[in-house]
Structure formats: structure tokens, C-alpha cells
Design a protein that fits this description.
Layout: H1 7-17, E1 20-25, H2 30-35, E2 38-40, H3 42-51, E3 56-60, H4 63-72, E4 77-79, H5 88-91, H6 95-103, E5 109-113, H7 118-122, E6 126-128, H8 133-139, E7 146-149, H9 152-162, E8 167-168, H10 181-190, E9 195-198, H11 204-209, E10 212-213, H12 216-225, E11 230-234, H13 239-246, E12 251-254, H14 275-284, H15 293-309
Bound molecules: 1,3-dihydroxyacetonephosphate and iron/sulfur cluster (SF4).
1,3-dihydroxyacetonephosphate is lined by residues 26, 41-43, 115, 129-131, 173, 201, 215-216.
């Protein structure tokens, strides 16, 4: 990237010139959220990707988000600023092993969280996100046998709130599993009026302690509508940017991780994207997401079922 340019202005100029839309997940760096045309959770990003008229989608998020956009809009060029932006949860579900798991449970509906590769989606009946998971589970007949993957924490949580007994894949997100219940309890003593907001990818003891559990969009909405003035936020720290923007007078404390020496509240994959990489992606129209057409045809079906139920 040339040093003599105003990178933000150039990104906006290139975006307009090329008819591109910049979409960012809530976990992106603040400056990326601020330059994006659209900021949202996994469900909103998929919905927006399905309906945008732009020629190019720049998905500032992780690989599976770009893949979901490409599966929904195969004729568009979908760029992710850094293709190395993976996801530990998606990685915890390799396609061959998941296929054997599905084969071992004949007669089960295969429900998968959107944090998966296209190959896993192609093996699924319905995709869910943390925003619509409960509604989708509730929409299925009570006696339906269900496999849920890959997140064991979200799966356990869904079983507990919906009275189901879904068979769970044993995967997890390394960011959400690192928050320390003990340290949050200590923090609550210092901030007795603070409410604990937690993403359902967190472990069960934390979810039991939380005042509110929800997707990034749901946590944001709750923080806006709540009468409370202080919140301990147990999810990736990027969401705090929007919370603080929406409620400048409220205080948001990132939940402490077990290891205080690491930047564990950050998802290092999400944080791989930068304004420089975003600029290069727009300028060189690279790196692009590609999905094998046979896999795409199978993968789009469970995503469309999700979008239909979530309308
Ligand atoms: P949501 O934004 O859909 O709640 O997802 C969180 C997440 O971990 C995305 O990677
Ligand atoms: Fe994946 Fe966890 Fe990062 Fe979300 S926060 S992208 S689930 S590794």
C-alpha cells in the first residue's frame, strides 16, 4: 500500500468505482466496522449477501462467512481481505469425520451452526446461527431425532432451553472457551450492578452465571434496551465497539480470560483483516472465495432453509 495515500478515502473511492459492498462482522477491528456499508452478525451478513445488488462483496470476517456469501451469490466476486482468517470452531469439524458421524446416526436431521466449511454445509439439512438456532430447533417436530454440530456449548445450551436431546458433535471456539468464571465472579464483586452478557459459544458454567445469553446482535440489542449501566461482555471484544457507540454513557467491561497475559478476548482470525488488506482486496480484486459448484448446490439448500425460516 503506497504511504502517500489516504487509505480510507481510497477504499471508498475504489468501492464506488467497482460497485462493491463492504460487509463486516461485529468482531472486526473498529476501523473496519466504521468503514463498512453493513455491520452485522452471521445471520445478517448471510441475509445481506443474498440480497445485495453490488457486483463485488468484500466480506470483512472469516473464511466461512465469505464462503456463505459465495454460496448464496455465486455470480458475484466475493473477497475476504485475508484468506488465512479461519475459525477454530469450523476447524474442529473435519468433513470426513463428520460424514462418518452423520452415517452413524441414520434417521437424524442434521443441524449445523453456520461456523463450518461448505463441505459440512453440503452434508446438512438446515444451517442455523446463534440468532435463529432456538427458533429453528423449536420449528422441528418434538420427536424429531437431531444431530447438532459443531459447537458443543451452543448445542448443550439449545438442548437445555428447548428440552431436546440432540446428539452433539464435540467442537468448540477457542475464544469463547477461555473466559474465566472465577474472574468474572470476582469482577462482579467490584461491579455489583454489572450484568453479564454471554455468547452461547461460552462454556455451561458461564452461561449459567450470565444475566443474558445471545448472539452478537442479540447482546448488542439487549445492551441498548437494558436499564443497566454496566456490562461484563463475554464474547469477542469487537462487539464492544458497537455497544459503546450505541450507548456512550454505559460501561462495557471485557470478560477476563483464564490467561491474563494473552489477548484472548480477540479472535486472532477475525483480527487478521486490516484496512491495508481491505484496500488491496478492492484494488486487485483478490483474494477471492471459490466454492466447488457440486458442493455449492448441496450447501445452498440448508442455508436457504435457514433463511426461509428466519424471514
Ligand atoms: P454471531 O455473530 O452470529 O453471534 O456469531 C459469533 C461468531 O463466533 C462468529 O464467528
Ligand atoms: Fe471462529 Fe471463535 Fe473466531 Fe468466531 S470467535 S470466528 S467461532 S474462532
Amino acid at each position: 500500500v503506497p504511504t502517500n495515500i489516504d487509505i480510507k478515502k481510497e477504499i471508498i473511492r475504489l468501492k464506488e468505482e467497482k460497485d462493491a459492498i463492504i460487509m463486516a462482522h461485529f468482531y472486526q477491528k473498529n476501523e473496519i466496522q466504521d468503514i463498512a456499508d453493513f455491520v452485522g452478525d452471521s445471520l445478517a451478513l448471510a441475509q445481506e449477501a443474498a440480497k445485495t445488488d453490488a457486483k463485488i462483496i468484500v466480506l470483512a470476517g472469516v473464511h466461512f462467512m465469505g464462503e456463505t456469501a459465495k454460496i448464496l451469490s455465486p455470480d458475484k466476486l466475493v473477497l475476504v481481505p485475508d484468506l488465512n482468517a479461519g475459525c477454530s470452531l469450523a476447524d474442529s469439524c473435519p468433513p470426513d469425520a463428520f460424514k462418518s458421524f452423520v452415517d452413524k446416526h441414520p434417521g437424524h436431521t442434521v443441524l449445523t451452526y453456520v461456523n463450518t466449511t461448505a463441505k459440512i454445509k453440503a452434508l446438512s439439512d438446515i444451517v442455523v446461527t446463534s440468532t435463529n438456532a432456538k427458533n429453528i430447533v423449536d420449528s422441528l417436530p418434538k420427536d424429531e431425532k437431531i444431530i447438532f454440530g459443531p459447537d458443543r456449548n451452543l448445542g448443550n445450551y439449545l438442548n437445555s432451553i428447548s428440552g431436546r436431546d440432540m446428539v452433539l458433535w464435540d467442537g468448540a471456539c477457542h475464544v469463547h472457551e477461555k473466559f474465566s468464571v472465577e474472574k468474572i465472579v470476582e469482577l462482579k464483586k467490584e461491579h455489583p450492578n454489572a450484568l453479564v452478557l454471554a455468547h452461547p459459544e461460552c462454556k455451561k458454567p458461564l452461561l449459567l452465571l450470565a444475566d443474558y445469553v445471545g448472539s452478537t446482535a442479540a447482546l448488542l440489542k439487549y445492551s441498548i434496551n437494558s436499564e443497566a449501566n454496566e456490562f461484563i461482555v463475554a464474547t469477542e471484544s469487537g462487539i464492544i465497539h458497537q455497544m459503546q457507540k450505541e450507548s456512550p454513557d454505559k460501561a462495557f467491561i471485557p470478560a477476563p480470560p483464564n490467561d491474563s497475559t494473552c489477548a484472548c478476548n480477540d479472535c486472532e482470525y477475525m483480527k487478521l483483516n486490516s484496512l491495508e488488506k481491505l484496500y488491496n482486496a478492492l484494488k486487485y480484486e483478490w483474494p477471492a472465495i471459490d466454492v466447488d459448484e457440486e458442493i455449492r448446490i448441496e450447501a445452498v439448500k440448508p442455508i436457504n432453509r435457514m433463511l426461509d425460516i428466519s424471514k
